Fold this sequence. Notes:
By secondary structure, the protein is α+β, with helices and mostly antiparallel strands. It has 17 helices and 10 strands.
Amino acid sequence: MSKIGHQPEGVRPPSLVPPPLAALFSLLIPGLGQVLARSIRRGLIIFFSYITILGLMIWRFRLAAPRDTGWLNIFKKALKLDNLLLSATILFALLLLWIAWDAYQIARHRERTPVGVFFMIILVFFALGWQIGQIDLVAMVAQMDEAGPPLARVLWPWEKAIEREEETVQAFADIQVPCVGEPPAVNQVSGDEPTLVATPTCGELSTQGGEPGTTLHLEGYNFSPDNPVAIKWKDPLGNVFRQRQSGEYVVVTPDADGHFAIDIVMPYRLLPPSADEPFYIWKVFGEQVASVGPAHLSKDFKLVVEKMIETIFIGMMATFFGVILAVPVSFIAARNLMSASPITLVIYYLMRGILNVIRSIEPLIWAIIAVIVVGLGPFAGILALTLHSIAALGKLYSEAIESIDPGPIEAIQATGATWLQTVVYAVIPQIIPPFVSFTIYRWDINIRMSTVIGFVGGGGIGFLLAQYIRLLDYRSAGMAVWFIAITVAILDYVSAEIRARFV
């Protein structure tokens, strides 16, 4: 028989205020109505969530209209410039109404605990995240065609892995600027030598105002079939530059007989004021690069392999030094071994604090600091990963020590053994399996991280990959990505085999 006044499980005490008043209070201060309805934790969660959302909204509005003054002007300008902020504002207002309705429901129904308000809070956070992250799916889809060719080169980069010796073939034609006196003779095709024939052999350059120059008709003979020919110019001062037409470099592909024909407009070019001759001889030429000789591995391929080996050894050396230094640290950071006296306990807390600070700083940051100290290169990467490995492994090792069976320790200590003897005979036999497991896990992490710290100068393939991306050399970058993926997959298999044998 239940006692009088016993509160059934899952039913809240009566609300301190009527439901309409609880809703009103939550409109004024979100969450207050829930608190007055005896749902204190719920009210506090709603209050702090709403305050966080309000702060984010103010920040985004101020960021959207940084030059405006007055909150009304900022509000109008931000909504005008950013449609996503308008959606977030509408959801923000609906959230306030929902909070009030939730307070009404909580105050009215003691046995019900609706969760819709929390889904609404998550939805508002999601809307703000969408706006802060500047997610634009339409632009992503629209630009997919432009991203296709670079991605294709990254996914299949192996054309860059093989190269042959290159032979450059050039054929020149003289062009007089302007047409004064007797122009140069038209080139004649003789034998099987590459020849470029230009007609006419004199003309005017394009002007700065946009007036086009003379149109030349170029015909090429005896070039390699189906191999592109770039049209270039050499001015009277010996400067070589590419011919552009309609914003694109002029490139023409000879037919099966090695012949091509194209019309080009003479380019715009300034000569220094000292050039005061009555006319000048310009040269237009077709340049064709042909691959000759046997195929061999390219320099980029060899460099990627070299840097990948460097990356593996960065991770390996960092793991080796990390393990060597983390093992003694872990015994000092184990509470069950350091709680014998107040002095050792102070050392324990100090060591734990140092490990927490070092571990809280990412290896990328440590790599930047190491680059400042020792300069660019793999040594900086090894230092960064070693430091982080000591902190991470020290924590894992110490927790493994703290979780061992205390029975053997008590038995060894009962014989009067010293601290060192206790560690050797009671602790080490129990911690070898987890130590091996944690070491392999850290080795795997260091190999992965060593490919990233190269982006800030820590050596390895990451540094090379960053350079290729900056130069838009997507095929070479693709080779680096492939080698990273293959290496990580192989090391994952190796680490799994080692773990299966020793753990």
